[in-house]
Request: fold
Amino acid sequence: MTTRLLEEKRGVVLGVANDRSIAWGCAQACAHHGAELAFGYPNDAMKKRVEELAQTMPGAPVLLCDVTKDDDISAFFAKLKEHWGSIDFVVHSIAFAHRDDLKNPFLQTPRDHFALAMDVSAYSLVAVAREAAPLMTNGGSIVTMTYYGAEKVIPNYNVMGVAKAALEACTRYLAYDLGPQSIRINAISAGPIRTLSASAISDLRIMLDVAEKTAPLRRNVTQTEVGNAALYLLSDLASGVTGEVHHVDCGYNTLGLSAYEPSGE
Ligand code: NAD
Reply:
């Protein structure tokens, strides 16, 4: 029998939109390894979609959690406290930027769009970690999702690259604050994957092509592979690992060739 890495652990998955979501890849890996899961959704429009997927994991609570609202986040974790008493892990797989800002020159990013992208994509990790930590009475692990556009310029990634740079810094500072409570926090830098959010990026097709041609593995990474990496970081196998960005991208950035000329479409 294979070892179940998350047996008797309970965790939260934020960021499932559909079965292509990276969060869903994480949920499946965690459930397969024995975890009990709870899911968040940001609004009524998403509720049904998340409920339909969560039904495949009987008994999984599906609760409102718009991460731009402090009240939603605190109510979400209060309900989980009532339901479970404590939790062991959180998957934060959430980002948002206006579509125009992933196409126009970064220079043109309006102030309010910049603030919203930072709020949803970076600050939300801080707000979620603050509410989750008191429930992690036996220590815990938090995983968030980032992208190489935080480190280097990837054409069109723009404000999201800036938000991801902030997210990666948040990961390090949160790891420092939460370490004394044995709560670890890590970021996975995933290679490009065709998902609902990623489809908002102009030239996603070129990003996928470049990654496929330049990555040492000569292909793109899958949600399942990102989910398996999250599984490791959420499990006790990674008990000494925190505050790091882990590239799970078929080696895509190792050759330094991942930049491309935008198509101008
Ligand atoms: P996705 O569209 O499936 O997931 C994004 C999720 O963010 C959705 O479930 C959406 O409901 C949620 N969300 C947006 N605003 C929210 C809010 N206010 N409150 C709560 N939830 C909110 O796309 P994905 O590609 O799976 O994205 C998941 C994460 O992975 C994001 O952080 C993304 O930047 C990151 N990532 C994606 C790729 C890629 O190529 N797809 C690569 C690296 C990193």
